[in-house]
Structure formats: structure tokens, C-alpha cells
Amino acid sequence: MLTFIEHSTTLWLLASCTIIIIELVLLNTYYLLALAIGTTSAAAAAWLDASTAIQWLACSLGSIAGFLGMKTLRPKPSNTQQHDDISHLVGKQVRVSETIDPRGRVIYKSVGWAAESDELLHSGERARIIRVHGSTLFVEKCDTKPKSPHSIKE
């Protein structure tokens, strides 16, 4: 048993397996996997009979490489704006229910929304959503009338 534990390759591999098990069973955040990459790198250095200092260097560099690899492989947001469940409203037409000067209310699909605009919009006018922030719709006056009364669902 002593020869099994005395060899540093085995110790590094045991550390790597333990870290992987802790990560996958308990934490499930994948941050410790970078450390497991480092300990596996140290095991490779030990297998090549490198000194203890080189093994620790391999562990450090392998961990850093693992963290950088995880950072570059993580999907990046496609846009700097946050998208939520109502961002699809941009471009839709709404009916002004309370005069907007600069704040008021609009109706979209029978639901009232807080609205803001740079323009004065009177009750009953049509507006187009240009931006959504939280539960507030930013609107602008529509230049065109809807083709039929059924083209806008309120």
C-alpha cells in the first residue's frame, strides 16, 4: 500500500478524481473542473519524473489554462441588451389609453402598460413600441394608419 501512495502520479490522480467527484456530485458549478485539469497536468508531470516544483508549476499552469478555456468556451451573449419575455413587443403597434406627456398608458392585446414617449400622444392615437425597459414601453407616434381594424390585436 505504501508504494501505491508514495508515487506522486497516483496522488495527483487521486486528487483529480476527488475534485471531479466533489464538483459533479455536490457543487455542479464546473469551476473546480479547472483545478482538476491542473492536478491532471501535475500527474502527467509526475509520470515523466519531473521534480516536485515542476509538478506544482504544471498544476498551476494547468488550472489557469482550465479557467481560461472555460471562459472562452462559455457562450457569450449575442447582444449587450438584456432580453426578457417582453422584448418581442418592439415594433408592435399599441393604442394610447391615457395621454402620454411624457408618461402615460397604452393598451396592447387588452393589457394596459405604462408608457413613455418624447412626443405628446393623445388618448386613442396609435403608437409603435420602440424599446422596452422593465414593464415600461417606450413608444413613438405611428405615421401610418392600420389597414383594417383587425390588424392590431388589443
Helix content: 40-55%
Low-confidence stretches: 1-5, 147-151
Profile the largest sheet: 5 strands, mixed, barrel
H/E topology pattern? HHHHEEEEE
Tally of separate domains: 2
Q: Give me the side-by-side strand order of the main sheet.
A: 1-2-3-5-4
Number of β-strand runs: 5
Strand percentage lies at 15-25%
Envelope shape:
rod-shaped
Distance between the termini: 77 Å
Mean of residue pLDDT values: 81
What is the overall number of helices?
4
| Secondary-structure class | alpha+beta
Q: What Rg is obtained from the alpha carbons, in whole angstroms?
A: 30 Å
Account of the 3D structure:
By secondary structure, the protein is of the alpha+beta class. The protein folds into two domains: about 1-75; about 85-140, OB fold (Dihydrolipoamide Acetyltransferase, E2P). It is built from four helices and five strands; from the N terminus they run ααααβββββ. The chain has helices at about 1-5, 10-25, 30-45, 50-75; strands at about 95-100, 105-110, 110-115, 125-135, 135-140. It has a five-stranded mixed barrel. Helix 2 (about 10-25) packs antiparallel against helix 3 and helix 3 (about 30-45) runs antiparallel to helix 4. The longest helix has 22 residues, at about 50-75. The chain is rod-shaped. Mean pLDDT is about 80; it is low at about 1-5 and about 145-150.
